Amino acid sequence: MIRATILGSGTSQGVPVIACECHVCQSPDPRDQRLRSSLLMEIDGKNYVIDSGPDFRQQLLRVGIKNLEGILFTHEHKDHVAGLDDVRAFNYRQGKPMDIYCTERVEQALKREFHYVFSQERYPGIPELSLHRIENKRFELFDGCEILPVEVMHYKMPVLGFRLRGLTYITDAKTVAREEIEKVKGTEVLIVNALHHSQHLSHFNLTEALEFIDKVEPQKAYLTHISHLFGKHEEIERILPPNVFPAYDGMQIELH
Asked: Which end of the chain has fewer CB atoms < 10 Å from its terminal CB, N or C?
């Protein structure tokens, strides 16, 4: 059984945006309060997170998670990696390094951003990490649990989405090659980025996200990485096809 929890459904700025007075940022609806994009996957009783952005600590406290097996990184932008230091709590509780799954490019970025973690001078209390380098090919989290990466382009930056059995998670996509789309076809649940209505250099807008969903033909699709410019949650709901839904922080999706 897989239970996916949307830890964050917002863009790099989150929603509400600092100092913004638009009707979305002022909305009292909790579904319009979006932390930076991240997903918790509970797989056969084991917890894994995709991306640890600036809100990582807050997100995990909010869902009450007590144990974490590992983190999978989509790419190296700050809104996806900035909270990595907070794995220290799990190091202490679980008595072992945190398993990190990332490409060589992301690994190099982590070594720049968190240089003290990889320094030969082992300062007391720094995070303990066990790096597992991945590529755009299948890899295993544990016995019986294979992950299929799906490479998408975030303008000119390669980003990995991840397919786990009937669940596929893709964020920060603008273009997707035909062979990568083939990997996603047949997925039961697709979670994919949709920034807002207008064209954007490096993200799907709503039209592009819906076109991608039509190609993949999932049973259900959920939109994430949502900007305050998209509208309020209830406004987005009204314009979507019957099998497409706006994600919101705390939303849970179960697959058997």
From this structure: C
Instruction: Report long-range pairs for 25-33 (Cβ below 8 Å, ≥24 apart).
Output: 25/228, 27/232, 27/233, 29/232, 29/233, 29/234, 30/248, 30/249, 31/233, 31/234, 31/246, 31/248, 31/249, 32/232, 32/233, 33/249
pLDDT digits (tens, 9 = 90+) for 114-171: 999 999 888 888 999 999 999 999 999 999 899 999 999 999 999 999 999 999 999 9
In the chain, the DSSP E strands lie at 2-8, 38-43, 46-50, 70-72, 98-102, 129-133, 139-142, 145-154, 157-164, 167-170, 189-193, 220-224, 244-246, 252-255
Fold of 2-255: Metallo-beta-lactamase; Chain A (3.60.15)
Can you point out the beta strands (E) in 14-121? 38-43, 46-50, 70-72, 98-102
**CA-based radius of gyration for the chain:** 17
